[in-house]
Design goal:
The chain has eight helices and five strands; from the N terminus they run E-H-E-H-E-H-H-E-H-H-E-H-H. The protein has 232 residues and is α/β, with parallel strands linked by helices. Strands 3-2-1-4-5 form a five-stranded parallel beta sheet, with helices on both faces. Strand 2 (32-39), helix 2 (47-57) and strand 3 form a beta-alpha-beta unit. Helix 7 packs across helix 8. It starts with 7 loop residues before the first strand and ends in a 9-residue tail after the last helix. The mean pLDDT is 94.
Length: 232
Amino acid sequence: MVIQDQAKAIVLSSGGLDSTTVMAMARREGYAIYSLSFNYGQRHAFELQAAAHTAEMFGAVRHLVLDVDLRKIGGSALTDDIAVPKGRSTAEMAARIPVTYVPARNTIFLAYALAWAEVLPAADIFIGVNALDYSGYPDCRPEYIAAFEHMANLATRAGTEAGTRIRIHTPLIRLSKAEIILQGLALGVDYSKTHSCYDPAPDGAACGRCDSCALRRKGFGEAGVADPTRYK
């Protein structure tokens, strides 16, 4: 339920650790939550169940799932017949952009969020990108987000005619995974209901060895918090 004059925010949600924490933060700031997820042909589509749970947990006004079949483009271990890397060290992850990078994914997702923001209307979009404990994706960097926000205000009726200042919020961008977890726990996030694995079992159990699982495990270890993830 939206309270009159309550600001609306679109939160990009994968049902993962980061995006769930971001939704908790947006909720704490008093926004009416509009959750946006994508069925993009990802091999870890189990995450959509977690995203639906996250939207319910934080009382989203609406949870929208869009079908955008990126398998037709391919080029990523998440959307193509390419093996997901396993057992890599943090140094190996940071050495180069990995094959789990989905070409232009955040640009595609943010573009859809921007379109929805114009219609609602909403001036605020939240995304859980992180420039510290991440796998080297170029669309998680602060300079990318700043460039997209600038473009968003040039390319929309809301930004050019209505005088709306569209803002892309990235509250996790300079936090370590451990710091993200501790903030989420303080906001009541149940991380056992989140999903991060790139190559889960059919029942959703995490592989425990992909880059995303490794970063998640590292975060819980450094936070000194028991990892509630169900690994196969």
